[in-house]
Amino acid sequence: MNTTPAEQAQLMERILYEVKRIVVGQDRFLERVMVAMLAQGHLLVEGVPGLAKTLTVKTLAQAVRGHFRRIQFTPDLVPADLVGTRIYNQKTFEFSTTLGPVFTNLLLADEINRAPAKVQSALLEVMQERQVTIAGETHRVPEPFLVMATQNPIETEGTYPLPEAQVDRFMMKVLVDYPTDEEEAVIVERVTGPRIDITPVATTEELAALQQHCRQVYVDPSLVQYAVKLVSATRRPQDHGLGEWQRFITYGASPRATISLTEGARALALLRGRTYALPEDMTDLVPDVLRHRLVLSYEGLAEGWTSDALIERIMGRIPVPAKPLAHEAMAKAA
Predict the structure, then answer these.
(1) What Pfam families does UniProt report for this protein, alphabetically (predicted)?
(2) Fewest C-beta in 10 Å: which of 56, 104, 112, 303?
C-alpha cells in the first residue's frame, strides 16, 4: 500500500475517531494502544474495573475488521486453554489439533495476575515469537497481533505476581485512571442512550501496511543514544551520577526497554503525522516503557519509593538531546 504520510495519518485519525464514538475520554490510553499496535508491541494495563479497557480493544478490533477474543484468567486455567491442544477422535482414530483463543488479532487477557505462573508463561512464546508449538507442530498467529493484559490493583487475594520474564515481554505498562465528572456524564448518556454501531474504517491488511511504514520512520542516532543512557541508568546509576539511588534498585531494565523506546517513538511520530521522531515522542513514553521493568529493593520500598518516582529522577539527570538539524530539513521537505 503506497500512501503518503498525510494519508496514513488520516487513516489513523479515522480509526481513533471511530473508537472515540464509543469510548469516552481515556485519550492517553487510546494513544498508547495505537502506539503498541503500530510498533507491534504488547500492552499491560492496570486499572480498576469499569474503565472501558475491554471496550476499547473490542471497538478497535471492529474498526479495523480484526478478530477479537477475551480470556478471563482464573486460578484453574491451564496452558491448553490458551494455546490449544491435541484431541483424539474416536471415529477416525486420529489426533486433531484444536487451536486456542490466542489465534486472533487482538487478544485481551483479563486479570492476568489471577492465573498461576505456568499459564502466564504459556503466553511467552506467542508474545515474543508470534507462534505456538503444539505436539511439535508450529502454528503462526494471525497478523497483526496484539496482546493487551489487564490487572486489578485493588484486589490482591487469589492473585499471582507476574514473572519478570513475562512482564518484560510487554512493551508498555499503562495506568488507567477514573474519568472526569464531565466525561462520566457523557458515558452515562452514551450507555443509556441509543445504540451506536461501529463502522469499520480500515482492514487488517491496511493496519499491517501501517506497521511497515512505522519501521521506516526516521530516528536520529542521538535519540537512540538517549534511550540507551536512560536504560543504562536504571542498571548502573553510579555511572551516570545517580549513585545515591543505586541502593533503591535491585534490577534495571533490559535491552527490550531500549528497543521499545525507539519503536514507540517511531509509532508516536507516525501517529502525530510525521516521518521522523522528535525527542518529545520518546520522553512521552519513558514512564510507560520503564515502570514495569524496574525491580525496587526492599530499602527502596521501605522508604516509599516507586518506579515512577525513580524514573522521574533519572529523566531529570539525563539530558534530552536537542532537535537535530536533520529534523528541520525533513520537516521542510514534508
Answers:
(1) AAA_3 (PF07726), AAA_lid_2 (PF17863)
(2) 303
State the CATH architecture for 5-209: 3-Layer(aba) Sandwich (3.40)
Residue where the block lists cell 549513585: 243
Q: For residues 272 and 5, give the distance between their C-alpha atoms in angstroms, rounded to a whole number.
A: 10
**What residue ranges do the domains of the chain occupy?**
5-209, 217-333
Whether pLDDT at 43 is above 80: yes
Strands 137-140, 131-134: parallel, antiparallel or unpaired by DSSP? antiparallel
Comparing 5-209 with 217-333, is the CATH topology the same? no
List the grid coordinates of 22: 464509543
Let me know: does 141 contact 100? Beta carbons within 8 Å.
Answer: no
pTM of this prediction?
A: 0.85
Residues 6+ apart with CB under 8 A from 180: 25
Q: What is the CATH number of domain 217-333?
A: 1.10.8.80
